[in-house]
């Protein structure tokens, strides 16, 4: 599909998820089934098929990791500066973490696969792994420190490492490193399963979005959207250009970093004393805004 078709496909699925929830078709239990299917089956299949068929030398590009960390640091610092004067710790902490915490798994990886496929998807899988190891500790630390809440970082990291997507990433790299060929029947089955990652994830995300504008600070939501959806992809494009990254690295890095705020930040905010209403509104606003900003990003890197 071309750029316009990809974005229309994304928008239709996202709206179908939102509409399905409002019409009562995607109930909480059905949305949960979709989420589990994407998390435990479709996304791991996508990660494995994208990494096991690629050369490790092509995928493990130092500029990819360097650029990712640079962008995360810069945008995180901007978020802290912009929101440092916010009086409420609960609001300030959520605004800061949602300015940089990306939805790599449910949106970033499937969208990268649909847009570019091949080695770019494998590199996006690397960002998914490194991103989780970076974003989760940073987000938990900010929320816990600002809100003076107790957090078990070890438990959070243990849960992340037990993530089936991370297991699929490690297994894919092992198959690539050892030059292990996957039987055709298994490969075809995993390939078919991986094709369902994007529709399942988008429907689940759409069904989970909710917005209550009466309970949130709209200027703060606007600043989070500006930082996450405008500053972050622009910084990513600049960073990978300065690092002279190749095309697949730039595509994977910029597109993954252009993703909206992860839904998991709402869960972290709820558990660690953050403003849950603001967290929900930011997830909704950045996800809706991403339809337009991803279109612009694809014009630059596509």
Describe how the helices and strands are arranged:
Blueprint: H1 3-22, H2 28-52, H3 56-59, H4 62-83, H5 89-97, H6 104-115, H7 118-147, H8 153-161, H9 164-177, H10 184-194, H11 197-208, H12 218-242, H13 247-257, H14 264-271, H15 276-301
Subcellular location: Cell membrane
Keywords: Cell membrane, Membrane, Transmembrane, Transmembrane helix, Transport
Pfam family, one: Mem_trans
Would you give an account of this structure?
By secondary structure, the protein is mostly helical. The protein has a single domain, classed as Na+/H+ antiporter like fold (Up-down Bundle), CATH 1.20.1530. 79% of the residues lie in helices and 0% in strands. The protein has 15 helices and no strands. It has helices at 3-22, 28-52, 56-59, 62-83, 89-97, 104-115, 118-147, 153-161, 164-177, 184-194, 197-208, 218-242, 247-257, 264-271, 276-301. Helix 7 runs parallel beside helix 13.
SSE-based structural type: mainly alpha
What best-fitting shape do the alpha-carbon axes yield?
globular
The low-confidence parts are none
Write down the domain tally.
1
Name the helicity range.
Answer: over 70%
* Biggest sheet architecture: none
CATH class: Mainly Alpha
Order of helices and strands: HHHHHHHHHHHHHHH
Instruction: State the distance separating the first and last CA atoms.
Output: 12 Å
Q: Report the radius of gyration as a whole number of Å.
A: 18 Å
Number of helices, counting only DSSP H or I runs of 4 residues or more = 15
Strand content: under 5%
Subcellular location: Cell membrane
Family: Belongs to the auxin efflux carrier (TC 2.A.69) family.
Pfam families: Mem_trans (PF03547)
Protein name: Malonate transporter
